[in-house]
Design a protein that fits this description.
Strand order of the largest sheet: 3-4-6-7-8-9-10-11
Order of helices and strands: EEHEHEEHEHHHEHHEEHHEHEHE
Largest sheet: 8 strands, parallel, barrel
Number of strands: 12
Strand content: 5-15%
Helix content: 25-40%
Mean pLDDT: 86
Structural class: alpha/beta
Number of helices: 12
C-alpha cells in the first residue's frame, strides 16, 4: 500500500528560534515538522552539564539572528544532552495497528522508546509479536527488507520482520534520534526451542548489526555495566545518533507463572556475566531491566550478588516511583536509565491516550524533573509533538 500524499498545510508559524529535525512525523503537514526547542520553564529543572548550557546559548544566538538568515546547523531536540541526562517520551505497545498502521509510522513519530511484546513458547515456530495471542503474530510489522518496501507489504510478521522494518527505517533515516526498543518477553525465554538469550543476540545482530548500541559499547574499559554507568560512560545523545538500544523486561505471563523460576531479567543477566567472563561481551545485543520499583537498590532482590552489576536499566509503573520511600534521584546520580510507564496514572490522573498537549507536557516535565525518569511512557500516540520532545533529566 503506497504512502498517502502529503497534504498542504498553512504557512509555518514564526518562532524566535526554529530547529529543523533530521526526521519528521510522516503524518504531519509541513508546518508541523518544525519544533521550537523546548524552553525549560518547569520548576525543579537545573542545568545538567556544560553541553546543555552550550545548547541553550546556541538557541539564544539563533533567535538573535537577522530575519531571513539560514540557521548555521540543524539539531534534534536535546541533541547536546548526555543520553543518561535526558528524558524522552515512549509509546506503549507501538506495534498495535490501532495506534500506527505500520511500525514505520511509529518510528516516524519521534518517540524515544517503542515497545514490542514478544512470545517464545512452543505454540509457534519463531518469536511472535502480539499483545495477547500466544499462537501467532498480530502487529503492524511487515518485514520490509529495504526502505522502498516500508508501508507496502503484509503485516502481522514475527520478531524478525519487526527488526527488518527497524533496519529499513534506519537506512532511510541516517543519523536518526537514538531509539530504545523495549521488549517485554511475555512468557520469557525458551532456550530449549532455540529462543534463548544467545539466539536473541544472534537475531538482533543479524537484523540490526551496527545500528545496535550494545552492552559491550557501554562497558568498554570497565569490568561491568554498573561500573561503566557510574563512571559516566554513557555517550551523548548526538553520539548515539543512528542507534537502537534494546531493553528486555520480564513478561506478565512469565511473572504470573509459578512454575517459572528463571525470569527474563535474571536469565539474560546470567548470560551477560558468562559472556564477559569468556571475553565475549561484544556479542551481547540487549540490556536486561530490573522490573518494578522498590525502596533502596532494587537489585538486592537478586540473591546472587554477582548478577547485580549487569543491570543499569530499571523500569515499572510511574506511580510506584513517586512513592515517598523511593529515591529516584539515586538512579539519576548513578546514571542508570529509568523507564516510567503508565505516566497518565500519576496523580492527578490524565487521559491515557488523548490528554491535551499541555497536560501531557506537564506530566513529562514532572516525571523528568522531580522523579528523574529517562523515559516517560504512555499511549499518547495522537500527540507527536509531545513524543518528539526531549528534556533535561532532573
Amino acid at each position: 500500500m503506497a504512502a498517502p500524499p502529503s497534504r498542504p498545510g498553512p504557512p509555518p508559524a514564526v518562532f524566535p528560534c526554529v530547529i529543523q529535525l533530521p526526521y519528521a512525523p510522516r503524518h504531519l503537514p509541513p508546518h508541523g515538522r518544525r519544533l521550537e526547542l523546548e524552553g525549560q520553564k518547569s520548576r525543579g529543572f537545573r542545568e545538567r552539564t556544560a553541553t546543555a548550557v552550550a545548547l541553550a546559548l546556541a538557541v539564544a544566538l539563533c533567535g538573535a539572528a537577522p530575519a531571513g538568515a539560514a540557521p548555521a546547523r540543524t539539531a534534534a531536540p536535546g541533541e547536546g544532552l548526555p543520553f543518561a541526562g535526558s528524558t524522552g517520551v515512549g509509546v506503549h505497545n507501538a506495534y498495535e495497528k490501532a495506534k500506527y498502521p505500520y511500525f514505520a509510522d511509529a518510528l516516524d513519530s519521534g518517540a524515544a522508546m517503542l515497545e514490542l511484546d514478544v512470545w517464545s513458547n512452543f505454540f509457534g515456530s519463531s518469536w511472535r509479536v502480539s499483545h495477547s495471542n500466544p499462537l501467532g503474530s498480530d502487529n503492524n510489522c511487515e518485514n520490509a527488507t529495504a526502505p522502498a518496501q516500508l508501508r507496502t507489504k503484509s503485516r502481522n510478521q514475527n520478531l524478525a520482520g519487526c527488526l527488518a522494518d527497524l533496519r529499513s527505517w534506519h537506512d532511510a533515516h541516517p543519523g536518526h534520534r537514538p531509539v530504545i526498543i523495549k521488549m517485554e518477553l511475555k512468557d520469557g525465554f525458551a532456550a530449549h526451542l532455540g529462543r534463548g538469550p544467545a539466539d536473541l543476540d544472534a537475531l538482533l545482530t543479524a537484523r540490526l548489526g551496527d545500528a545496535l548500541y550494545r552492552p559491550g559499547d557501554l562497558a568498554s574499559g570497565h569490568p561491568d555495566l554498573d561500573s561503566a554507568a557510574r563512571a559516566g560512560a554513557w555517550p551523548s545523545r548526538s553520539a548515539l545518533a543512528g542507534r537502537f538500544l534494546i531493553e528486555l523486561i520480564p513478561g506478565t505471563v512469565e511473572e504470573g507463572n509459578p512454575a517459572d523460576s528463571l525470569w527474563t531479567d535474571r536469565e539474560y543477566a546470567t548470560h551477560l556475566r558468562a559472556l564477559a567472563a569468556a571475553g565475549g561481551l561484544g556479542q551481547a545485543a540487549a540490556f536486561p531491566a530490573v522490573h518494578r520499583a522498590e525502596a533502596g537498590d532494587p537489585r538486592a532482590r537478586y540473591a546472587d550478588a554477582s548478577l547485580r552489576p549487569w543491570f543499569v536499566v530499571f523500569g515499572g509503573d510511574a506511580n510506584a516511583y513517586t512513592a515517598p520511600d523511593v529515591d529516584t534521584g539515586w538512579y539519576d546520580r548513578n546514571h542508570y536509565l529509568l523507564i516510567a510507564t503508565d505516566a497518565q496514572s500519576v496523580a492527578p490522573a490524565i487521559d491515557g491516550t488523548s490528554p491535551t498537549e499541555a497536560q501531557a507536557r506537564e506530566r513529562v516535565a514532572l516525571l523528568a524533573g522531580r522523579y528523574h525518569a529517562s523515559v516517560v511512557s504512555a499511549d499518547w500516540h495522537p500527540l507527536p509533538a509531545v513524543l518528539a520532545s526531549v528534556l533535561p533529566r532532573g
